[in-house]
Amino acid sequence: MNKSLTSSLSVADVLSAEDDRYEAQIEGDIEALDRLLGKDLIYFHSSTIKDTKDSFIKAIETEKLIYEEMERSDSRVRIYGDIAVITGRAQFKVVSRGRQKNLDMLFHSIWIMRDQRLQFISWQATPMPD
Fold this sequence. Notes:
This protein is α+β, with helices and mostly antiparallel strands. The chain has helices at residues 11-27, 30-36, 53-61, and strands at residues 37-44, 50-52, 65-80, 83-96, 99-114, 117-127.
């Protein structure tokens, strides 16, 4: 088989990286986030606010955005070469600009294998209807 068509990514590696990101967000671990987030990150919150890597990290660092709990369910991972797409449902408890929010969302999370490591490059979340 053509080596360029195979992937070194595994579902377990991708879910582990996603778990590490969730933990870093909850802990406010800026060093871990800097390592996990790709420089070209685009993060669309369920509120429709768009963040880049820098603005996302700054929001967590300044506590404009505090992740208290993050859980996902019904996850599905699809791998395309060096790119992995996770889709599923997520329940987050966050404090955003001083307001407590309980979020129930559908999401996609995209990871890429780059520079010998997985990097988180995209998030899109849509709120579940009430």
